[in-house]
Task: structure prediction
Amino acid sequence: MMAASLPQPVGRQREVLYLPAGGHTVVLGTAGSGKTTLAILRSLYLSDASTDHAGRTLLVTFNRCLVTYMEHLAGAIQRPIDVRNYHRFARGYLSSRGKLPPDSICAPDERLRFVGSATKEARAAGAQSTLLQRPTKFLDEEFQWIQRQGVASVEDYTDAERTGRSTRVTRADRVDLFDLFRRYLEHRARADKLYDWDDLASAVRRALGEDENARLYRHVVIDEGQDFSPEMLRSLAAAIPGNGSLTFSATSPSRSTVTGCRGAAPV
Result:
């Protein structure tokens, strides 16, 4: 089952490798603990045709360079495994559903221009919020936070807790900022840009919610999961069937496990 170029799992790694092939599993390990190699081995195990849990497996990471490395290590094994970075997976799925017209993703420089145009429009409409005096980059970063968290309404945004980061926008100002965010989306849409890189995940999650076809992947293995936004993780969880599995592997400064999932293990 193992590729000759891959190290054999040892100790606790073997326990993690053969965790149940159903439900959600979280694997945390310190830097250098072999999580990427283990993610590849886990993908090979989940796709093993000699098992009753075999199924097409998506091995996904955020970094394109890491994709190349994983493809190199797993290349000697002929298995139904797709190694992708997240945005390649997202574009591929939306395209398969006819939801990704050519040139419909907003580039970062275009995005900043639309944020600026939305701000000017709000000022021209008589908006008086002090937020309109903030730098365009600040507003853009707040829009990114809204999208990565999957915030869909002004009510959700107003109620959102900002755990782990300073309060960038007070609750009193969030109504005005969300109005500005809507204006940004309108400016983007008028330029025939359906998405930007930060709301692709929400688009994938919505499309999967409407998709009654059989899922392409039975298993998803996420490497370096700490780089993924909450919406990316939600979309990947929606990409597997009821009898599938999602393995989330991430770097942690300690070996503590994550609660609230069906399985959790340190490396």
Notes: Confidence is low (pLDDT under 50) at residues 256-267. The longest strand covers residues 23-29. The chain is about 45% helix and 15% strand. Residues 171-190 form the longest helix (20 residues).
